[in-house]
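U., I forgot to send this yesterday:
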Amino acid sequence: MTSLASQSVLIVGGSSGIGAAAAEAFAALGAHVTIAARDRKRLDAAAAAIGHGVRTAVLDTTRDDDVAAFFASADTFDHVVISAAQTPTGPVRGLALDDAYAAMDSKFWGAYRVARAVQINEGGSLTFISGFLSVRPSRNSVLQGAINAALEALARGLAIELSPVRVNTVSPGLIATPLWSKLEAGAREAMYENASARLPARRVGQPEDVANAVVYLASTPYATGSTVRVDGGGAIA
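Result:
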């Protein structure tokens, strides 16, 4: 595996959850990490928690001008991870079209904007975060599955277009992140318990589980065009 010490790493969506865990994992290995997100206060709190001299940048990936301006003045990176997304969920016939457009704009087009604007050093990597719904559809999250599948297909195509930059995807299952904080505590714990009983791994995923896969793809020079599922067996259960 390639050393990540002194490598320049950008984590888009690095202020919480999987993005923050990935930032911490890279920083612990000696990388120079920048975390980017829309909320300055959350970025500052995440950087303080991670330590290691992590830098911050305010970036809204849903805005063409914001993305273009940010990368026009940014340095070239060795590794880039895109974890930012806000995706309203619901059945196709119940989800408002405006919410559906916003979900696609945030998770797919946000990643697309970054991919077309960012400069990555030769032999470096770009990693998307998708989700196991791409291969295990849910009747209440059809759009999320379609977006995840589109991201994975985008990564495979970009692995050819951007070569020798390597492009991969990590596809998580149920991960205990702040995404679920809006659920009432009892309902959230019941969901986690039910999932733990159902999944072959017999546990719910943690952000660090996904971060391990992100680091593996960044540090493995022969990995490109790949999708690595970290779902506790959710795609087969």
